[in-house]
Each structure stands twice: as C-alpha cells, then as structure tokens.
Specification:
Elements: H1 2-11, H2 26-31, H3 37-59, E1 68-69, H4 70-75, H5 86-92, E2 97-102, E3 107-112, H6 114-129, H7 131-143, E4 149-151, H8 152-157, H9 168-173, E5 180-184, E6 191-195, H10 206-216, H11 243-253, H12 272-292, E7 297-299, H13 300-303, H14 307-310, H15 316-322, E8 327-330, E9 337-340, E10 344-345, E11 348-349, H16 354-368, H17 378-386, E12 387-392, E13 399-403, E14 408-410, E15 417-419, E16 427-431, E17 438-442, E18 447-449, E19 456-458, E20 464-469, E21 476-480, E22 485-487, E23 494-496, E24 505-506, E25 522-532, E26 538-547
Parallel strand pairs: 21-25
Antiparallel strand pairs: 1-3, 2-3, 4-6, 5-6, 7-9, 8-9, 10-11, 12-13, 14-15, 16-17, 18-19, 20-21, 20-24, 22-23, 25-26
Helix pairs in contact: 3-16, 6-16
Length: about 550
C-alpha cells in the first residue's frame, strides 16, 4: 500500500490548500515537490557561502587581531560542517582566506584577504546606512504578532536575514527605547522584545502595493475583481497545471482574509471555510516576513520560531509546499530554505539593496573558488611580485613561494622548515619515475634521488632529448627528456613518456670517424610550435627526418 501511495505522489504534485492531501509523511511530501533548476543552482552556491560566512565571523570576532588559528578551525570542522577538514576548506577559497605562519605565536593562522575585508566593510557600511529602514522593518515584524511581542532568541536567529547589525541590542533596541522594550519571558534567562510605541500610520503590506500596480496596468493578467485578495503566482518551468488545479487556485484567490497588520480576535475554527481563511492569513504573514528580509529568503527552521507568536498552528514547511506558485522550498545543504518566488528573476533579486549587493560579491568569490587566484587582490599581487622562486616542501611536498632574501621557508600545512638554496643557484624540476612526486633539484645535476621512494632518477640536461615510439602508429618521436607525455604529429595520439626507459640522446653528438655498423633506417617526426602564415592563420610546423645506416 505504501508503494502505491508513493507512485501516486510522484505522478502528480500535492497541493494541500486545493483539497484534502493524502496522508503521507513529511519527507515524502518534500520529495514530491516540483523542482526549479534556477533556485537549485542558486542554493548550490549558497550552501558553500553559509560555511564561508561562519568561518569569516570567527575571524572577525576579534577586531584588534582579525585572525584565527588553523588548529582551532580544525577542532571545529565537524561543527562547521567542513567535511574535508579546515585546511582543505581554506585552500578551496584563496580569494577569501589567507593562510600564513605567525612566528611570534608559533602557529599557522588564517585571516581574510584584502578583497574579503573590503566586502565585509562594505556590508557593514551598508547596514549602518540602512538603520532607519531596519528599525521600521523591526516595528513591522512586531506589529504582525498578536501580542506585539517576539522572543529575542528568535530575532537573534534571523538578525542577518533582517539586515540587523551584530550589536543590534545596543544600536537598535537601546537607542529606540520609545519603540522597543525588553521584558522577561516565562523561561529563565530569556527575554521578549515588545513593541511599546504607538504607530500613527497603518502599515501597508507588500502584496497591497503589488495589487495597486496590477490594477493600474492596462494589460492586467489578473481579473480586477479578484485583485482585492489575490497574490502573485509564478510556477517553475515544466510544471503541468491542470484545468482543475487552475480553477481551485482561482477559487482560493477570491477567499477574503485578515491582513498581516490587521488586528485579529480569538475565534474557533470549526468550519472548513474558516480553516482556509486562517491558512490564507498565515500565507500573508510569511509572505510579508520574506519581503522584510534582505535576500527574500530564510531557513524554514528559523521562521518556525515565530509560528505561535503570529497566531497560527500550521506546519510552515507544508504551508510553503502547498503554495508552489508563491514560494520555493529547497533542501540543498542539509537545510530547508524558502525563497519568495516573485522577488527573483534568473537567480538574482529583481530589486536589489546595498546589503544584498555586498553579500553577492562575497558569493561571487565563493563561486570563483581557486580560479584566477591573483586577480583583484592587491595583497596577493604584491606577494606574487615579491616572490623570487618556488620551493618544494621537504615534508608534504607542497610547492611553496618565498620572498627574496629568505634563508628558510616554513610550510603552512606541515610546519616543516625547508632551507632555501643559495642565491644565484638555478633550480629545475622533474617528476619521479617511481612515485610520481614532483622533485626539485639544482640545475646541472646528473641524477636525483627521490626522498619518498628512494628511486634514482636521471636528470635531463639542457641539450638532452629522448626517443619514444608512438603508442598508436609506432612512429619514432623525439621530445625533450623529462616531459610527462608526447603528442604524435602524425596521428595526434598522446603517449605517456614517463615509462620510457630509453637513454636520452644529446642533440650535439661528438663527431667520430668510426662508422655505425648495421644501423637501420628510422623516421623521426618532430612537432615544433605552430607558426603563423602570411594570411595570419596558425599552421602546423612539423619536421620529418629519415636516418639511414652507413657501413
């Protein structure tokens, strides 16, 4: 029976406000929702941004020394949901985090890059500039409560979504004592925020402004007789809307309801019509709540703390699923996040604000990841310009960059100190033929012994070349010794050259009067870099030579 119910769920979406929903579990109802690829892609980015913001808050917790120990982050990696560890997470976002070794404290620390610091300052300035608007939004939020009171711990959970500053208790609540008052709650060590000021003008909900705009339009998509209680709807692409479904949506749009800022008296909901009206008021409240947020999105768990204070006992997550034309619920990042569908277009806010723009810049750095590491960061550019060369750590084999004049380099990952070669010493690199580890050695060395697998590798000279047979057409190819692979100029096949055991042959061989007995002819194909012809087009530059034996 359970299998048949699930098949029925997956065939057609469920809409609780349009009729009686089948008795299914909450997880089944979430799984049966229609997916919107635009919001799913956006949430793929936001789930990483949440982790970045958590680490950023730890770094900025101490303004005098905005840095944190990498060991401290490693201990919190499980709580911060850093699945691959703190070091791997920090190295994943080099545009945001900078790892360095602090010799005074003897530990590896992490701070923000110049770009990330500027974005953080820009967001703080935008929040401070919008304090009058934030006060108005907090008054609106308290006005939607039936008792004009909300729990302070609930506001703490959504202070970032509402655009409140970190010290909003002092900068907003204490400085506006004529509007707000903290009072003790029934539970110990808890407080409620109460609205004590008199509001002269009645607030107008955001949906009311949309109705006025729709009514003034010439080509209005909604019947003007229905606009009095209607909400804007938009459905995900590919979602099939049946005729029966459309008719029930039209019927629901006509239902009268009490607005989010209107006074409501206690009443018993005995009839089915009364339950629908109460549900529509709940929809109006969460719709207005999302309009008060900076990014028109919030986690379902956070908004559920205000459910009883707003005067409805419905399951908020099911409420969002019942109205897919107004809200979109995403389950990315092991959390349920709801978006206000009408506020977004192509994954961006239609009407952005300064705080949203600053946070969007940080999101762009998260999406950028490790690409273009030296673009847009003055600190990284100055470090890159001051670097003389690179060095392979003798411990973890990572490539380290060091400034001119340094005698030793301490690795930020394994804390192993590697001595720097004397000035003027030219260094070269090769890949170990045994364990494939990158080795760095002094130029001119004839052989290099790997410190990992102890394999002795033949070091190539500047004039040494080697031969290898193409793995496809068996043509003999000549290539600089030490290259990991060779591309054939005849059949374009790429042959792995690291397993080639043939001894490299110098280009300038010593002249001898002795003849080479019984030597066979060989065809040697050399693919030179592409050149430009007279018309400006790139053409292949292939040289083919045939060596014949002489007696």
């Amino acid at each position: 029976m359970g299998t048949q119910v699930m098949r029925l769920i997956m065939k057609q979406p469920n809409y609780g406000f349009l009729g009686v929903r089948l008795k299914t579990t909450s997880s089944q109802y979430v799984a049966s929702r229609a997916r919107d690829p635009t919001f799913e892609k956006l949430m793929d980015k936001y789930k990483n941004l949440v982790k970045v913001v958590a680490v950023q808050d730890l770094i900025l917790a101490n303004p005098s020394d905005p840095a944190v120990s990498v060991d401290f982050l490693s201990r919190l990696s499980q709580k911060l949901h850093l699945n691959r560890g703190a070091v791997a997470f920090l190295r994943k976002y080099p545009h945001i985090f900078h790892i360095y070794h602090d010799p005074t404290k003897g530990q590896t620390r992490c701070t923000l890059t110049d770009t990330a610091f500027r974005i953080s300052e820009e967001e703080a300035e935008a929040i401070n500039a919008s304090l009058p608007l934030v006060v108005d939004q907090l008054v609106r939020l308290l006005s939607m409560s039936t008792s004009k009171m909300l729990p302070l711990r609930g506001i703490f959970k959504v202070f970032r979504e509402l655009g409140l500053p970190d010290d909003f208790e002092q900068s907003v609540i204490s400085k506006n004592s004529h509007l707000f008052q903290l009072c003790d709650a029934h539970e110990p060590n808890t407080h409620n925020l109460k609205l004590v000021g008199e509001i002269s003008d009645k607030f107008v909900a955001a949906v009311e402004n949309w109705r006025v705009e729709e009514y003034c339009k010439e080509g209005c998509s909604v019947d003007r007789a229905e606009l009095q209680f209607s909400f804007k709807h938009g459905y995900p692409p590919g979602m099939r809307l049946k005729k029966n479904f459309r008719s029930k949506v039209k019927e629901w749009q006509k239902l009268p309801y009490v607005g989010p800022y209107d006074e409501v008296t206690e009443k018993k909901r005995l009839s089915k019509a009364g339950m629908k009206v109460g549900e529509k008021r709940a929809v109006a409240i969460v719709h207005e709540f999302l309009n008060l947020t900076v990014e028109k999105m919030v986690e379902v768990e956070k908004i559920s703390h205000f459910r009883k204070w707003f005067g409805f006992d419905l399951n908020i997550r099911d409420l969002f699923l019942d109205h897919p034309g107004m809200f979109y619920l995403s389950t990315k990042g092991k959390r349920h996040t709801v978006f206000l569908r009408e506020a977004y277009e192509k994954g961006c806010l239609i009407h952005p604000n300064p705080v949203y723009n600053a946070r969007r810049k940080l999101l762009d750095l998260v999406v950028l990841g490790r690409h273009d590491m030296f673009i847009g960061d003055s600190k990284m550019k100055s470090i890159a310009n001051a670097m003389q060369s690179q060095l392979v750590c003798s411990g973890c084999r990572s490539i380290l960059l060091y400034p001119r004049g340094a005698s030793n380099v301490c690795c930020a990952l394994c804390n192993i100190i590697t001595p720097v070669p004397p000035p003027g010493t030219e260094m070269a690199q090769l890949i170990c033929g045994g364990c494939r580890t990158l080795l760095m050695h002094t130029s001119g060395a004839t052989s290099v012994r790997c410190s990992c697998c102890h394999t002795v590798n033949l070091a190539p000279a500047a004039n040494q070349f080697a031969h290898i047979n193409c793995g496809n057409c068996r043509t003999t190819l000549m290539y600089p010794y030490g290259a990991p692979s060779v591309k054939c100029a005849v059949c374009q096949f790429v042959t792995n050259a690291m397993g080639n055991a043939r001894v490299p042959i110098p280009v300038h061989r010593p002249s001898t009067s002795a003849s080479m007995p019984h030597s066979q002819s060989q065809t040697v194909v050399v693919e030179n870099p592409m050149s430009v012809d007279e018309s400006g087009k790139l053409v292949s530059n292939v040289a083919v030579g045939v060596t014949t034996g002489k007696k």
